[in-house]
Structure formats: structure tokens, C-alpha cells
Amino acid sequence: MHKPNRSIAALIAMLMLLPLIAACGGGTPAVTQPTPSGAQATSVPAPVEATAAPPAAPEATSAPAATATDATAAPASTDATAAPASTDATATGAEAQPIGEQVDLANLSPSVADPAAPVTIKFASWVGETDTMKKFAEQFHELHPNITIDFQDVPAEEITDKLLTQVAGGTAPDIAYLDQSAVGDFASRSALVDLSDYVAASSAVKPNDYVPAFIDAATYQGKLYGLPFDGESTGLFYRTDLFQAAGIQGPPKTWQELEEDAKKLTIKDKKQYGFILFAPESAYYWYPWLWQTGGKLLSEDGKQILFNNDDGKRAAEFYVRLKDYAPVDFLNSNSYDGRVAFANGTVAMYVAGAWFAGTLRSEFPDTEGKWAAAPLPEDKQCATTVAGDTLVIFQQSKNKDAAWKWIEFLSAPQNMALWNIGTSASPGSLLPPRKSLIEDPRAFENNETLKGFSEQLKCGVTNAGNNENWGQAEELLNEYLGKALFGEMTAAEALDQAAEEGQAKLAK
Hints:
This protein has 18 helices and 10 strands. By secondary structure, the protein is α/β, with parallel strands linked by helices.
């Protein structure tokens, strides 16, 4: 999943995404989930009936199309991520059977007792109105009749600020669907429940099964404060038609090739550009280049800013230099708006999460056969940004055991797979953050584009800093890198200024 600013990510991702991220079922458009690179609304099929004896796994279907890891793959438009079928998936058909271990949804944590009397759990999110989530709630209530889920709908771009206000005022909900980058902030305020004891008693939640970058983002000072629920990595989308016209055989694999290709593809007289950049999201889209040099945002203890060392400055200079091949008209836009420039051929390369494949197919069907996806070009090493959403329980909840039952139910392998991957009739465009799901040979039969993005998780890094004040320092980094993109200062000056002011923020 990236969103135009993971906080906007949350919003844009949600608006556009559930791009990779959330989805809705039964053929209705899904709510999107945020991702720094924007999001797209894709749909996820309604969950299968929840019973004590889960249905068997579905049979494998069609052979996969070209993947994002294939430098010479056929255009990603061959992937099955078209708009979902209008029919609802039912428990009687193989179409409704999600992949993953079919755990007994009625007995996930037998040692955690259900409430003796009816209780209502308030769940804050921007995905509560999706058919899939509503169906999950209905099935959950059948298994736990004394627990009712009350969806508290909050726009993705507003949820973090609203939750902070509620925590301060003592009115926090029981649970929230939270952008992973915000977990550390809330945990540092002692606002979240440490889930370690609950996890130890669960047959559905296995920390070692989660992709490390996602579990790291949900961990604060060695304790687990959330359950990763959906995610994305970042890759390179490119216009195969424009590459062919420029005589370029395949996507760039190195920084040098990226810059050379961007130069060849930039024909300003024709208003055609090789790349695209977004100043309002400058930090988020710079991170992969930093990490590929071996650079880091912070020291291991989270006390010292490191992004302005020699590696960081080299990465920033390369990144800012790409503005020479990017349309000025989009520089002050966000990454979701930038999808239009890619779709109409104004730009030939666009960095985004897998959500973008679904957006192209649903919003711009005329681009079919004209684009493909590939891993990001590399410097010293492979590195990409991972983003996602996490389920958390607030300390203010008066029904923590009941709240746990709900997020544990959502995190069961078959439910997580259905939310992220979907079915062939309603394919999803998000990555499940569990290794057993993304490594399942049937995982991406319905959306082959996701396969390449899942393979990038092996070198995925989260931008969630190990310091409660990292968010403030990150805002400064984004601000100054944006100024560098507009030519108001050099890339090196931007990093030094952001580091100087950011260090003061970290020390608060």
C-alpha cells in the first residue's frame, strides 16, 4: 500500500485504495485504505460464513500472468484485477474460499472468556461501511452473541488527529484501524494495550508469521501494541508503449539506468516526461533511495538523526535531480492526483504501491496493454518502503477482552487473506502482512501484479521511527525536501536543516 503521505496515505489510500488496501465485498466498491502513494478503491468479496468448522481451501485456478519482478514481463494489464463481479461470494462456492490456514474461528482464544452480558465495542476506522467489514461483524456476532461491533466512521485523513483528541479527553473508542506509522506515537502516550499476553494465548495470531517490517512497526520498546492487518510495498510502474517508442528494452534496474531512461523519455515540447515527483510527499518517496544506499533515518536507539550523512545526501541529490525529468505542473500535487499524468502518457515512470494497478484497470481501462510494473531500481542494495494498517486496542476500553476477540477474529489467516487478496470474482490489491499467506502458491492467482510487490517485502523497510517524536522530525524532513524540489535550497542543505531542527524535536 503507498499513500501520498502515509497520514494522507491513510486518506488517499483509503480514498483511492484500499489499494492496495481496504475493500468492499459483494460487488460494491470498496472503501480505500491509505497508502503513501495514494490509494484506490478495490473491492473484496464478502467473507465466508463463519462456523466452528471452516470450509476447505479452494482449488488453484488460472496460471499467473507477468509479475512485477519480471524486467521484461508483459504489461501488467494482463493481471486479473478488473472490477469485481457483481455477485456476492457465498460459503457454498469455491469462489468464496479464502486461502490460508482455516483456523476454527469459534475457538481462537478459549482462555479469554466472552463477556457474560451484552457489550458494544466501538471500532474507529474508515472501512466500517464496506460490505466485507459489515459481513465480518455479522459473522463475529453469531460466534460471540454478547459482543456487538459499533463502527465509528472517520475519514482516513482525520482519524489520527481525532483519536489523539479523544485519548486526551478520555473518550477513545475500544479499537481503531490505524495507519502503522502512528502506532508508536500512541503507544508512547500509554494509550494502547500491550497485546503480548493475548497473543500468547491465541491460536490465530503468530508473531513469527508476520513479515518483520510490519511487526516492527507495531512494536514499541519491545512490546507489541497492534496487529498488522494489511499492507503494501513500493515499486515502479512504467509505460511500455513510451519505452518502446524511445527504444528502451525494459525497466531500469539501477539508479544510472533510471536517470538515463528518464532523460530519454523526457520530450518537453510534447509535454512528455520520464518521471514524476510530489513535493507534499517528498520524504516518503525519498526513503527507498536512502535505504538503498545503506543509509538510515535514526540510530538504533531512536535518539540520533542519521539521514543527513554522506549516504543520505547522495540519495537526496539523486532524488532531487530527477525533477529535471518531471512535470512542474504536478510538483505541488499528491501522488494520487499523479495517476492521471501516468494514465494519459504525460509521464512514463511512476513510483507507487500495488494499489495503482487496480486504479489503472478500474479508472483507466484504455491503458490496458500499455503499462507494466517492476521492482525499484537499486543502488547498493534492494530496499522499498512498506506501509499498512494496524488494529489496536485503547487502554481506555472497558471491554478489552471483547475488543481482543474482534481484532483476533479479523486477524485469522482466512479473514486476513479475504480482506487483502480477495477471490477471482473480487480480487483485492493489498498485501497480507503474514508470511504464510504471501508465500502460499495460490496467493496471487487472482491478481498477479501483487506477486512482484510481495517479493519486494524481503527488503521492505518501515518509516516508523523508534522515537515518540519522530513524526515531528519527519514533518520537517518532508518540508525541507519539498523546498529542495522547488529549487529553494540544495538537497544537502535540506537534509542538514531538517536534521538540525528535527534533532531538537527528538530530544523533547
